[in-house]
Model the fold of this input.
Amino acid sequence: MKQHETRWKPGDTPLMEYPRPQLKRGQYEILNGYWDYAITKSAGEPSEWQGRILVPYSPECSLSGVGEILHPYEYLHYRRILYVRKPRRGRVLLNFEAVDQYAEVYVNGALAGRHMGGYSPFTFDITDLVSDGPNFLHVSVLDSTDSSYHSRGKQAQVRGGMFYSCQSGIWQTVWMEYVPDLYIRDLKITPDIDRKCVRLTIFPSRDAGKEATVSIIRRGRVILMRKMPTGEDISLPMESMELWTPESPSLYSLKVELGNDHVDSYFGMRKFSVGMDARGIRRFMLNNKPYFANGVLDQGYWPESLMTPPSDEAYICDIRTMKDLGFNMLRKHVKVEGRRWYYHCDRMGMLVWQDMVNGGSNYNMNLVRDMANILTVTQRHFSDCMNYKILGRESERGRREYRHELAGMLRELYNSTCICTWVPFNEGWGQFEAAHMADFIARRDPTRTVDHASGWYDEGAGDYFSIHNYFFPLRIEPKNRVVALTEFGGTTYPVSGHRSALKTYGYGLKVYSKKDLTRRYEHDVRREVLSQIKKGMSASVYTQLSDIEEEMNGLVTGDREVVKVEPERVRSINRQIITCFEHATT
Done:
């Protein structure tokens, strides 16, 4: 079947936008473009190189120019010349937004560092390894995909149904930046609307006893400027606040200066919590008011580039299309995006439920799925603490790695205005100690809510009673947690001329027209959402944003060329959800 692609053509230098919008500085160089590559059976630098690969696209996808699968325990090698303007004073940092899965980085033959984890950014200080002018960069990558316990999301060596083509290696931006000897390593930004302040911590590269200068700017006007110490959590007053909501995504600019280092950032004043509505039912709250999170499952796949967007505009298009259809939330499903995606959600006004990437050794999907459905019907519980083997978590090392990567995700995305909920586990895939993980998250980030077990194997923890329902009549009742329908729908509509697989996969019904898919969406909303709001439902997630390979149950086609529903009718249905919720909570 013909490979259908999106309209975005990245050219020879793709994704050149600054990749870290909440800690932005001026002296940097994007290293995306053509690199040499080779796939070998050994870890050492290859004696021969196979050709060129377009970074940051994985070798498995067509945009990379390679189209070759990296098998477990094969080595994927990258090489390029690194031109450096080495400063007399200052440091040279080499940044990788994400490399799947295990990477070793060498500069001029010397090891710069190692990193495990296919979905997290990392940085190496290469100052002492480079000279002024040309240098040689070599990256060696291993990826076990689904043959080990490492985080993998929905990647599979044999794709099909709800599991998709695997990808390997560098799949997000690579970039280099120049910083002074004393520089701002990180910021932690915590809005507090109840106390009318924003709390800020500045983390320096080293303790030099210097104060930083902080400026908060709104609509081009400096509303606060002061000096503050580094390494301390300092409250900055925000007396006249403009609150962030999806309907009015107000953001404040933030400038921080420390010695010769200058960074730009931003934040939004908002609060996510759980509370009682006027009728005593527990609800999700935005800025201390009940708010219905009306969302879509978003897996972030593109036909020609898999998990890497073909362009920054592709990110924007998906968010804008869902907002235009009347949705206010995206559940980022078992994937961590590049940080620019969260920036666009921040500035455009889109709530995000953020999944942790699932891993674990082989788990019998039929057993896990069937047992979950039986438990749902019988309303019996299953302890994930006592069944590591069934859910693929026998490896203590794998459980330790999961906790480390979860803590890293919480830290890296903490400043994102849009993220309102953390989701550590989905449908029992590699789930373990979910109640403990809910506490693990809440201790590190008490400013957001937690859906501790999305869909299956509820341990009675976190802030949500989370339901996935595709097949059974749904009847809920008020709980001591917020009730959320975190997956429903899934109706299949394969659009002729816009499908990338002969086989078709979906949940339940298959339809063959835009009108019929719209009718089915209305039917599902009325049966599963509108009828349950008075009983406590406070969030819903429709499956899904786009078609992906065989799974053709998206609201848009995989190539993003066809919106598969009638937009005005879907907007009207979504307005009914919000109106119904407002009446039910007052």
The CA atoms of residues 274 and 284 lie 5 Å apart.
